[in-house]
């Protein structure tokens, strides 16, 4: 929330700057709106489905763990123990806790959607320049064409930097959240497995639930797959900004010798010497290689955690045998 408040404070100046760029270099990408709306519809629909599955899992757990309570009271006590272990139950407190949980679920998804939609827009600005360059590849064009195109590319690159200054905190939070929850859920999956039995070990009401006691397993699997797919999508879409900024280089290398000029050389130096990409508070740049780096970090984390936990497991097993 604090990151979005900072974005809101800087947003009017950024919008005015973007409007100035749009006036100088109009971009008629008719697919941009459909891509943003379609992505939002898909992600939020999956987020709603994940939330519904989590509620089903919690209600099923409440039926098993709190059979003597009302269904709603058992649900909130089972789903929000960090609240009701310290505060007395009341329907109003249960509703407020559930409402805040619902909001936080969609805010978490909104940060990823915000990064995706901003990446769509910035990629569209760079692709607008790239289309002009690809249409001119190998042609004999005057120096003025290369100068105006280089200046247009420079304005698009500067817009990326301006946007990054505003949203880099949101990018950092998005990647950090995704990395943390992927590591957490993978570790729980690999260490304990996914079982259909309830943690309360009371099978009296288990068969009467919607999925026969497997609500938690279904929710956990769906949540893990959805989280990994969404994280990969954010990484790949945000990295398109950097990929689009490197497209002009091969075109500039193909400029015929008779029309090769200082503007082409300046354009090449700008493309090769300047890294255009979104970043997470300048700690990392979002490129395609970042996805492999994050995957390696996750694997390393899991191996280290298993290494630290294996002696404890062995000691526990030995004690039980004796």
UniProtKB/TrEMBL annotation:
<feature type="transmembrane region" description="Helical">
    <location>
        <begin position="207"/>
        <end position="229"/>
    </location>
</feature>
<dbReference type="InterPro" id="IPR009318">
    <property type="entry name" value="Gustatory_rcpt"/>
</dbReference>
<keyword id="KW-0812">Transmembrane</keyword>
<feature type="transmembrane region" description="Helical">
    <location>
        <begin position="166"/>
        <end position="187"/>
    </location>
</feature>
<keyword id="KW-0675">Receptor</keyword>
<dbReference type="GO" id="GO:0033041">
    <property type="term" value="F:sweet taste receptor activity"/>
</dbReference>
<feature type="transmembrane region" description="Helical">
    <location>
        <begin position="106"/>
        <end position="123"/>
    </location>
</feature>
<feature type="transmembrane region" description="Helical">
    <location>
        <begin position="41"/>
        <end position="67"/>
    </location>
</feature>
<keyword id="KW-1003">Cell membrane</keyword>
<dbReference type="Pfam" id="PF06151">
    <property type="entry name" value="Trehalose_recp"/>
</dbReference>
<dbReference type="GO" id="GO:0005886">
    <property type="term" value="C:plasma membrane"/>
</dbReference>
<protein>
    <recommendedName>
        <fullName>Gustatory receptor</fullName>
    </recommendedName>
</protein>
<keyword id="KW-0472">Membrane</keyword>
<comment type="similarity">
    <text>Belongs to the insect chemoreceptor superfamily. Gustatory receptor (GR) family. Gr5a subfamily.</text>
</comment>
<keyword id="KW-1133">Transmembrane helix</keyword>
């Amino acid at each position: 929330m604090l990151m979005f408040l900072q974005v809101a404070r800087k947003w009017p100046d950024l919008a005015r700057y973007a409007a100035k760029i749009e006036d100088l270099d109009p971009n008629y990408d008719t697919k941009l709106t459909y891509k943003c709306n379609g992505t939002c519809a898909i992600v939020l629909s999956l987020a709603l489905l994940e939330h519904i599955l989590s509620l089903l899992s919690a209600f099923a757990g409440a039926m098993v763990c709190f059979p003597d309570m009302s269904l709603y009271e058992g649900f909130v006590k089972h789903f929000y123990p960090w609240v009701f272990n310290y505060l007395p139950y009341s329907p109003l407190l249960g509703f407020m806790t559930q409402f805040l949980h619902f909001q936080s679920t969609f805010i978490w998804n909104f940060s990823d959607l915000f990064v995706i939609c901003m990446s769509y827009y910035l990629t569209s600005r760079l692709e607008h320049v790239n289309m002009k360059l690809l249409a001119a590849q190998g042609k004999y064009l005057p120096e003025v064409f290369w100068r105006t195109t280089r200046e247009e590319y420079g304005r698009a690159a500067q817009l990326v930097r301006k946007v990054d200054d505003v949203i880099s905190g949101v990018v950092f939070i998005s990647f950090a959240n995704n990395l943390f929850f992927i590591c957490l859920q993978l570790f729980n999956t690999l260490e304990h497995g996914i079982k259909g039995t309830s943690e309360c070990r009371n099978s009296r009401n288990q068969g009467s639930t919607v999925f026969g006691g497997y609500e938690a397993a279904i929710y956990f699997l769906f949540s893990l797959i959805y989280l990994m797919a969404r994280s990969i999508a954010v990484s790949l879409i945000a990295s398109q900004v950097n990929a689009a900024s490197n497209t002009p280089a091969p075109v500039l290398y193909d400029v015929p010798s008779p029309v090769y000029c200082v503007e082409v050389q300046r354009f090449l130096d700008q493309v090769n010497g300047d890294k255009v990409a979104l970043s997470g508070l300048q700690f990392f740049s979002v490129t395609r290689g970042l996805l492999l780096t994050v995957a390696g970090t996750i694997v390393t984390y899991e191996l280290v955690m298993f290494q630290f936990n294996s002696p404890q497991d062995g000691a526990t097993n030995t004690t039980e045998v004796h």
